[in-house]
Structures are given as C-alpha cells and as structure tokens.
Amino acid sequence: MKKNRLLFLFALLSASPVFAQTSARTDTLSQGGAWARMEVENGDTTFVMSLWPVKIAAKRNFKDLDEQRMYYRYVRAARKVYPYALQAIAMYEEIQDQTADMSKRKKRRFIRKEHKELKEDFKDQIKNLSKTEGKVLIKMIERELNQPFYTTIKDTRGGATATYWQTMGKFWGYDLKEGYKSGANPLLDDALLDYDFGGR
Q1: Between residues 164 and 13, which one has the greater pLDDT?
Q2: How many domains does the chain have?
Q3: 60 closest CA partner among 196, 193, 195, 197
Q4: Do residue 48 and residue 125 come from a single domain?
Q5: N or C: which end of the chain has fewer CB within 10 A?
Q6: Is there a domain that residue 1 lies in?
Q7: For the chain, what is the largest distance between any 2 Cα atoms, rounded to a whole number of angstroms?
C-alpha cells in the first residue's frame, strides 16, 4: 500500500510543470505586422521575432549632381504616391475577382459605377500630381501587377480608353505599353526598393 502511494505521488509530481522534462508556452505579440513569440522549454526561455524587412545598402555614389537630384526626386515622388498605388492595386485585384464570372455587359456596368466613385474620391489628388509623380505611380503599379499600365486600363476600362490614354501618354513621352522593366532605370529601381506591397 505504501509502495502504491509512493508511485502515485511520483507520477503526480512528474506531471506537474515544475518537474516536467518538457513544457512549452507560446505568447505572441503583434504590432504593425511584426511579431514576437516567447517559447519556454525545459526551463529555458527563447524569444523568436519577425521584424519588418529592411534594406541595407552602401552609400550611393552619384556620377553628377543631376543624377543625385533625379534620384531624390524619385524618392520624394514614391513617398507621395505610395498610398495611391496601394489602393489602385487593391482595387484592381478586387475588381478582377468580383467580375470574373460576369458577362462583358455586366462587367462594363459594374466598372463604370466603380470608376465614377473613384473619380469623385481621387480627382483632386491625382490632378495635382507632377509629371514625375505620375510616372512613379504608374511604374509602381506596373511593377507590382507585373503588366503594362495599358493592359490594366484595357482590363478595367476597355480597349478604346486604353488606346486614348496610350496616345496621351506618348504626347508626354511615356509609352503605356512598355511596362516596368527592371534595370531600365536603375535610379527608379533603387527608389522603389523600400516599398512593400504585402509580400505579393
């Protein structure tokens, strides 16, 4: 009987957290996309963390003052248009999802309604963009959607509208059919490196 009590007491103690060989506890904290987890195993505490990615680069050397000015012009433009690019990409993908099973006529009507609302919301902001800011916005969208801006317009507004904007773009020295090509403009490439679109 005494032996059975000792066995029972030993089993009870070995099952408790104090005497357990392994115990794990996970606490997760989240703020702004980064997270930290605390793991306790065999009495040892380990912290595992995921932080925002950062770009580490050597100090840029510019060949001349004009190149330096252009780079910082791109940086300022990117900072300004980034929120618009995020919204435009999210809206485009949402429209593509919502209209996937629609007929052409129903899709056109749906997009016309969305376009009218967008025009009212963004008319003043977009109208006041500089030529450089407009170019950076388009390049951001092209880079993330992996297609020329002409295709994006054609998908949402139709071929006639896309052709109209292609003609207007050429008037300002910009080809909407060209798309974003990495390496074509290294200064712009570097200016866009800091912008995250949610791990797309």
Answers
A1: 164
A2: 2
A3: 193
A4: no
A5: N
A6: no
A7: 99
Q: Is residue 197 part of a domain?
A: no
Task: Provide the b/e sequence for 88-120 (b: ≥16 CB within 10 Å).
Answer: bbeebeebeeebeeeeeeebeeebeebeeeeee
What are the residues whose beta carbons fall under 8 Å from the beta carbon of 137, sequence distance 6 or more? 77, 81, 84, 85, 88, 129
Please report which helix (H) or strand (E) contains residue 27, including its range: strand 26-31
* Contact present, 151 and 34 (Cβ < 8 Å): no
Q: Are 136 and 78 in contact (CB under 8 A)?
A: yes
Please list, in sequence order, all residues whose beta carbon lies within 8 angstroms of the beta carbon of residue 172, skipping any fewer than 6 positions away.
131
Residue 72 and residue 44 share a domain: no
The structure tokens listed for 93 are 């993908």
Per the domain annotation, does 85 fall within a domain? Answer: yes
Could you tell me how many residues make up the chain? 200
Query: What CA–CA distance (Å, rounded) separates 191 from 167?
Result: 27
> What residue numbers bound the domain in which 44 lies?
21-53
pLDDT tens per residue, range 83-128: 989 888 888 888 888 888 888 888 888 887 777 766 666 666 777 8
